[in-house]
Amino acid sequence: MTAAPSVAELLADPLLGSARTLAGHAGLGRPVRDVTAYRGVLAPVDGHLVLCAAADATPAYRLDALVRRAQEAGAAALCVTADGTARPPLSAVRLADRLRIPVLWAATDDPFGLALDLTLRVRAPEVARARTVENLLRRLATRTEGPELIAAARTVLAADVSLVTPDGGAIVGDPVVPDALRPRL
Predict the structure, then answer these.
(1) Which of the chain's ends, N or C, has fewer CB atoms near its CB within 10 Å?
(2) Which residue ranges make up each domain of the chain?
(3) CATH topology classification for 7-122
């Protein structure tokens, strides 16, 4: 997985198996880049899943205000965590639907654990890339010859690798098509 999961993909994950989508169904395709816990102030959180306690969303006018703040901060979704006895206020449904920001209601006894698990799930692609880079650097650190470098890089990256000159001529490895060297913007 290389892309950030969408809100809908997180809802399909067992971590949020008990969560309900109260509103903002039109925004379920938004990518979630990180997880942020709401602590009274909401700084810009572009693409974050914002977790808040039920106390921050009740009475109903507080949920309205929080939905508005989450939308203005660029949040991907708002998830209210509550124990199993709490009931969601439904007055913010129209506002969240109009703003297209998903509002989720997750019953949990351990909101901290949920936040940690969701953070690990959302950041999994970044962790995998970091592990690949770390593994590559570890293997390249002991190599000094071109063919050894190429062989180690091919093993880790599972891709064709070549050392090339600035004009694209292959020094070691397979010839490279010049257009393949252009960065993708």
Answers:
(1) C
(2) 7-122, 126-181
(3) 3.40.1390
